[in-house]
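Before the break, one more example. Copy the sequence into your notebook; we will annotate it together after we see the structure.
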Amino acid sequence: MTIFNQHPLRVIVGMWLVWSVVIIGYQAVVDWRYQPNRPDRATAWTPNETARTSQRGKIYLLEPFMNRQVSWDSEYYLSIAIVGYDDPEIQTVDTDDGRTLAKNYAFFPLYPYFMRALAVPLNILGMNSIATTALAGVLISLVGTLAALFALYDLTREELGEDGALRTVFYLLIFPSAFFLAQVYTEGLFIGLAFGCLALINRRQLLWAGVLAALAVWTRSVGLALAVPLLIVWLRNTDWKGLQSDRTALLRAGSGLLAVTLPIAAYLIWRAALGEPFDQVQTIWFGRGILNWGGLEYGFNEINNAFTNRDNTQMMTYYVLEGLSVLLALVGCIAVARRYPFVALFSLAALFIIVTSGAPQSLIRYVLTLPALFIFLGRLGRNAVFDRGWVLVSVLLLAMQTALFSWDMWVA
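Here is what the structure looks like once it is written out:
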């Protein structure tokens, strides 16, 4: 019998709706009640970015409407959605070949273009363009999150049962960085596409899975990792001996091959259109790239200094949470590999991209994209003591992280 004696999909919608209202409402209430002691010293560079006047001149971060759901990277998504990649209001980066590029080029196009499209009907509300587009961004994030909840439930229901699958969904909603799923950030849309792709792979609907994978690639770079499970499942489920004599098998194999190529083709299209300026801005300003060992070395030196001097508890706390999130995700990938091999393959590939792309920052946000982590937690939650303990720890950390983000402090 499912909880509340209701259909599980209605329970998911109910949890999602309550969670959405609570997260956004909490962000308002916490700002009304108290303010932090600025600046934030979570990293070596955050003190200069988190003073009371740090947002001055950033027009996309100053609009009062839904302002608590907008910070840091939200500026670039709003800018791309409203103006485009070459926005004079956005700070620029000087490249090695003498060009000047807006920081917008470090971000993928699908999420801000969806925001632009949804903002058109929302203009009926009569708000200015920044407020309208911010609302569009939050709505897209929330809808993507709901799709991810359905997909995660579908992936885990057979093993964990209805109550266990609902518990897994709930663990995603209360993860310490889950508030990003209700902000002007790409995580909500991305997990809706990526988890949906994996759920379709599990149902052997590879062509539609490939379509979602292609869209995920245009949302975040780790979407390319979805090609790995698509390829493995296609190779394992193709009737190679029957291709010459069975037309149905041939059509199924061709459809599966198309599914595998869709995310790769999407990546190549993006590379041709935006890949080169993306690399320039990511490397020069954000210090990120493929197998960026230099960025990792810098990050680990910063961590070493924080724990050696022990005079900056903010930095120590920040890096402990970052490290624990990666460790938990890695253990989760290994633990679920036998039962969910394609989910584990995607999660491991994405985790490898995440941890080798540069300095160890934003990791607790990036692991939201790894379904193996939440399946692992859902399994552990069958133990009542773990379930209560994890809910308590996770909700308290979620509250802390949400409040910090609402004040434009650095969380991830």
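The first helix runs from residue 8 to 33. Residues 3-406 form one domain. Try to locate both features in your own notes.
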